[in-house]
Amino acid sequence: MTVNAESTAGVQTWRDLPAAQQPEWPDPEALRDVIADLESYPPLVFAGECDQLRARLAAVAKGEAFLLQGGDCAEAFDAVGADQIRNKLKTLLQMGAVLTYAGSVPVVKVGRIAGQYSKPRSKPTETRDGVTLPTYRGDSVNGFEFTEAARIPDPERLKRMYHASAATLNLVRAFTTGGYADLRQVHAWNQDFVKNSPSGQRYEALAREIDRALNFMNACGADPEEFKTVEFYASHEALVLDYESALTRTDSRTGQLYDVSGHMVWIGERTRQLDGAHIEFASRVRNPIGVKLGPTTTPEDALTLIERLDPDREPGRLTFITRMGADKVRDRLPELVEKVTASGAQVVWTCDPMHGNTFEAASGHKTRRFDDVLDEVKGFFEVHKGLGSHPGGIHVELTGDDVTECVGGGDEIFVDDLHQRYETACDPRLNRSQSLDLAFLVAEMYRDQ
Ligand SMILES: O=C[C@H](O)[C@H](O)COP(=O)(O)O
Ligand SMILES: C=C(OP(=O)(O)O)C(=O)O
After folding, report:
1. What interface predicted TM-score (ipTM) does this complex get?
2. 238: Cβ below 6 Å to ligand 2?
């Protein structure tokens, strides 16, 4: 990887275009210093790993694998701890094991992790008790605390994001390759969930089948290396372009540009303007790219995105993450899938059942109903089944902790419970049990498909 200004000049073209949702940094000189520092830091990921993920996603695009992408809505600097990281990873691994068995296909595991520190917001300001302050835009930009000082964007936070991402990734790599993620261990955790949680008991039959399959392998003397380690990738929204472009490097093997802040980055629903800076940035880097598609997306938008981001029609390059809402997915998704398929592009279709289903409870908490989340995934599967296309995966906001942020689920959380452990810095996440619930239910859907 080289990092000289000339070799990465090609990634700066976004600067000539309108960039939505960028922080208003008060001191341009301080920002320039931070960018210079970030440009001198080592990459967080290796370009070859991004290529490997693109190959895995190509299998998803062809219908030969399933994508599980999940993690926090917004990571927080004060939550970079061993317990939080382990719990998140554990939950994703447990979900992955269930989906792998039921779908009989490899599950590509990608965390919203080690870089998910920046948030696009609906409004630039927030008012409480007559006081109006800039809105919280993620720990990479300003503080969550509702004070004037905390809400001023501070570019030094971009460096903290880099270091927090590095520490997180380091532990994730240690867990996934050092024995913690052994499939037999992951299955034992799933058995605990099935045995000990009221909602888990519904999945006893599936858990028993997985148990038998593992016992059979054991009896045959099989002890494959693949059981002992897990391939796990990191992703986040490429929102703050000063950070993403400062972390872009020329790959010395190929001479191409990679955003080495994460393996995969995505462009959000609020920043996917076809002539905007975010799409321009994403068009310049070789990482696998995701784009969120909300209910107002037209087939022409989708086709133009393909033209801009995947001109060579390379399976695995582009993932469309649809987030329509449970009430719209059956109506809006079919035309998009039909027209994209007819264009010959082989994208990954994955379902984010979170962002189209948010509402505010009477208590003022932003929340989501587990049933709506499930219904959007069901609608997504129905649409793809009807069209003969591949429902490639799910993209979920979740945590491994027992928070009370979304209502419903097998171990039901009621609206009146929301205040008990409402810990998200932005949007509500599925807790551990709701996430496992979802995995078992999606596994059943995938199997029926
Ligand atoms: O996570 C996604 C967005 O940042 C979030 O949905 C925006 O939320 P807001 O409407 O509270 O700004
Ligand atoms: C902001 C997000 O989603 P969307 O762009 O779909 O609203 C997100 O996934 O964090």
Report:
1. 0.97
2. no
